[in-house]
Amino acid sequence: MSDVNGEETDFMSTKPTVLLVHGFWGGAAHWAKVIVELRARGFSSIKAVENPLTSLADDAARTRQMIDQVDGPVLLVGHSYGGAVITEAGDLPNVVGLVYVAAFAPDAGESLATISEVHPPAAHDVVTPDSDGHLWIAENRFHESFCQDLSADEALVMAVTQKAPLGAAFGSEVSEPAWRTKPSWYQVSTEDRMIAPDNQRRMAERMKPLRTVELASSHASLASHPAEIADLIEEASRV
């Protein structure tokens, strides 16, 4: 494609790098369907961080390392607890925006625990700690709680490969929320059983996002509605 002067322009190169940040009970591969969607839409630079889920400080530090490796603008996309991570790590100058996917968006001094107390999730009783302090979703309740709109086979794989966070991460507090200074977008999952939809709406409303999208989705909207999530990311990439 040519610009007004007749010179060739690579519009793929004008898109920011999209850095995908997973949440609890999953890893970077939870973004598989979104990654395929984004590549089909011309996003040539897509990265997915693999966070240790040991503490908010550790996960934000790892995410900042990934951001620092990018020479150019970065659009952060966080699912679930990944929203808290991008809230903490998104203050770097090359971060151009934040996209929250059924995600926590804490304010200063808030943690996932304090937010969840406002509107407890429907599946509040499915998470149990092991003897090492890691939190697990009961395998036999993973499908109904985390991803009820996915197939039984997909849910089984998610349940067996779940990445259990340390309980301490649930109580980690955000320092300075990046959404106060960066453009933001938010996707609400109206059938979410892990983060109450009213909590999602409350967090979205106070951050004053450029757009809020509601999907009739489980918590795993990144897997059950990848095209709609890619739509929101694509919109955010143009600002």
How would you sum up this structure in a few lines?
With 239 residues, the protein is of the alpha/beta class. The protein has one domain: Alpha/Beta hydrolase fold, catalytic domain (Rossmann fold, 3-Layer(aba) Sandwich).
Question: Could you explain the architecture of this structure?
Answer:
Residues 18-231 form the AB hydrolase-1 domain. This protein is an alpha/beta fold and 239 residues long. It is 34% helix and 16% strand. The protein has 10 helices and 8 strands. The chain has a 6-stranded parallel β-sheet with strand order 2-1-3-4-7-8, sandwiched between helices. A two-stranded antiparallel ribbon has the order 5-6. Strand 7 (184-189), helix 8 and strand 8 form a beta-alpha-beta unit. It starts with 16 loop residues before the first strand and ends with a helix. The model is unreliable at 1-12 (pLDDT under 50).
The CATH architecture is: 3-Layer(aba) Sandwich
Morphology:
globular
**Name of the level-1 CATH class:** Alpha Beta
Specify Rg, calculated over alpha carbons. 17 Å
Parts with pLDDT < 50 across at least 5 consecutive residues: 1-12
| CATH fold descriptor | Rossmann fold
Largest sheet: 6 strands, parallel
What is the rounded distance between the termini? Answer: 21 Å
List keywords for this structure.
single chain, 239 residues, alpha/beta, Rossmann fold, six-stranded parallel sheet, two-stranded antiparallel sheet, 16% strand, disordered N terminus
